[in-house]
Automatic annotation (TrEMBL):
This is DNA-binding transcriptional regulator NtrC. Member of the two-component regulatory system NtrB/NtrC, which controls expression of the nitrogen-regulated (ntr) genes in response to nitrogen limitation. Phosphorylated NtrC binds directly to DNA and stimulates the formation of open promoter-sigma54-RNA polymerase complexes. Residues 421-434 have a biased composition (Pro residues). GO terms for biological process: phosphorelay signal transduction system; regulation of DNA-templated transcription. Residues 413-442 are annotated as: Disordered. GO terms for molecular function: ATP binding; sequence-specific DNA binding. It is found in: Cytoplasm. Residues 4-120 form the Response regulatory domain. The keyword Phosphoprotein applies. Keywords: Activator, ATP-binding, Cytoplasm, DNA-binding, Nitrogen fixation, Nucleotide-binding, Phosphoprotein, Repressor, Transcription, Transcription regulation, Two-component regulatory system.
Length: 507
């Protein structure tokens, strides 16, 4: 496409990413770091810009102000707005100000390029720009089209429950292991029914420090506590009229559980430091990978809150319980990862590779599968994903799982052993070590010494730091799993990672 695109974003990293995506698609690109510079650029090159990619949140002149200025000047350049905040109200405001389309960051390169191409085509054809109402319907349709892949009995049941839950405003509790798609289920519920065009606000309760949970959820007044330099509305108010999704609900501290219970019962929220509150109309969807019944029995979670949340339960199945969906999932994830990576074609997954993937039990579920496929895509040099691309998965299989066909000989070297989470297979004639889960703990390199070099007991903090560091490495940085195995909340885990200077964790 012979088009010139103006990228406007105050974040240089985002500008470079957008520039790379559009340049790879054959477009010429210019970039500005703020709204004023963008307007000046357009004034100098009025006929030289085919489309604009505009960040909504910028210091000084923000995206809405740029759109208003373009409209007042009569500039007809189509604008695709980008925002890290997926609020429907924000998107509708942008449309009313004249935007052609909106995208929520992070944006896949192929998706950004397609949006720009569509905008340029519509502008060149002279078609009328979409109305805000059309835009609402388009956005709601997108939200409904989440990636709930699979037509086996387990996923068919989940989809049926989603349809039922969407028809009412009753609270929904989504339970399931980490990586099973609980957020996708929440998005599917929010994208249907009477609230489909209203805000969907997502809060990860496990990622919020304990002392800020109430402020984040219910808001605070200016001066309510040290550091509260301005008023904050809170997530309940942001979601008013729409859906509030509370992920990792089991991590909420007790004080926040009390206020949440009142908000559910009365529809009333009171910001920290306020003398009064306000009524909100919010449909609540929550999710957890914990056993909340056990948490209730141990006193970590309020029983009355549990029954308020668990009005309509949905269980997301583990990947090992729906292996029949694996081929469709693999095809979908490979296509999506290839598109994100900007590949021109979609690599083929061989039958031998599918045998390896199908024999593994996927403790990290779909999230782990997607990570492994992405790793294989990045390392592949042939455009085909074969069994050797998943050698470290095959190395973890033992006799308790289905047998798999022998892997063909490698026709290219694998990545250096230091880059792989598991060692390569032993040479012929050398006995293989037992599978990782069958080895004694001391053989796994995960022994935390209790005594120091001076033969005296080590400080508890040092032992704890070693234990957490080993857990981060052992569970590949999966924070939810690490916190669950260590028996602590995610907010506590994040705090300890900062205290001990441990790196390597990821969401």
């Amino acid at each position: 496409m012979n088009a010139t695109v103006l990228i406007v974003d105050d974040d240089p990293v985002q500008r470079r990413l957008a520039e790379a995506a559009l340049t790879r698609d054959g477009m010429a690109v210019a970039a500005c770091g703020d709204g004023t510079a963008a307007l000046d650029h357009l004034a100098e090159r009025r006929d030289g810009v085919s489309a604009m990619v505009l960040d909504l949140v910028m210091p000084g002149m923000d995206g809405i102000a740029v759109l208003e200025a373009l409209r007042q000047r009569g500039d007809q350049v189509p604008v695709i707005v980008q925002t890290a905040k997926g609020s429907m109200d924000v998107a509708i405001s942008a449309m009313r100000a004249g935007a052609f389309d909106f995208l929520v960051k992070p944006v896949a390169p192929a998706k950004l390029a397609k949006a720009v191409r569509d905008a340029v085509k519509v502008a060149e054809s002279g078609q009328r720009r979409a109305t805000p109402e059309t835009f609402r319907k388009r956005a709601a349709s997108r939200r409904q089209g989440v990636d709930l892949i699979g037509n086996g009995p387990e996923m068919t049941r989940v989809k049926r429950l989603i349809a039922k839950a969407s028809a009412s405003d009753i609270p929904v509790l989504i339970e399931g292991e980490s990586g099973t798609g609980k957020e996708l289920v929440a998005r599917a519920i929010a994208g249907r029914g009477a609230r489909a065009t209203k805000p969907l606000v997502i809060v990860n309760c496990g990622a919020i420090p304990d002392n800020l949970v109430e402020s984040i959820l219910f808001g605070h007044e200016k001066g309510a506590f040290t550091g509260a330099t301005e008023k904050h509305t809170g997530k309940f108010v942001e979601a008013d009229g729409g859906t509030l999704f509370l992920d990792e609900i089991g991590e909420l501290p007790n004080a926040a559980q009390v206020k949440l219970l009142r908000a559910i019962q009365d529809g009333h929220v009171e910001p920290v430091g306020a003398r009064g509150g306000r009524t909100v109309d919010v449909r609540l969807v929550s999710a957890t990978n914990r056993d909340l019944i056990a948490a209730v029995q141990t006193g970590r979670f309020r029983e009355d809150l549990y029954y308020r949340l668990n009005v309509f339960p949905i269980l997301t199945p583990s990947l090992r319980s729906r292996t029949g969906d694996l081929p469709e999932l693999v095809d979908h994830l490979v296509e999506r990862q290839a598109r994100k990576a900007g590949l021109t074609g979609v690599p083929k997954v061989t039958d031998a590779a599918m045998e390896v993937l199908g024999a593994y039990d996927w403790p990290g579920n779909v999230r782990q599968l997607e990570n492994e496929l992405f790793r294989a895509l990045v390392l592949s040099e042939t455009g085909v994903l074969d069994a050797p691309d998943f050698a470290h998965i095959a190395a973890q299989l033992d006799g308790s799982r289905r047998p798999i066909a022998p892997m063909p000989a490698l026709d290219r070297p694998l990545a250096p052993a230091a880059d792989m989470p598991f060692p390569p297979a032993a040479p012929d004639g050398v006995p293989e070590p037992p599978p990782l889960r069958e080895r004694p703990a001391a053989d796994r390199g995960h022994c935390v010494p209790l005594l120091g070099a001076d033969d005296h007991a080590r400080p508890l903090a040092a032992i704890e730091a070693d234990a957490i560091s080993h857990a981060v490495s052992h569970y590949d940085g999966q924070m939810s799993e690490i916190a669950r195995r260590l028996g602590i909340g995610r907010s506590t885990l994040y705090r300890k990672l900062r205290e001990y200077g441990i790196v390597g964790g990821r969401n």
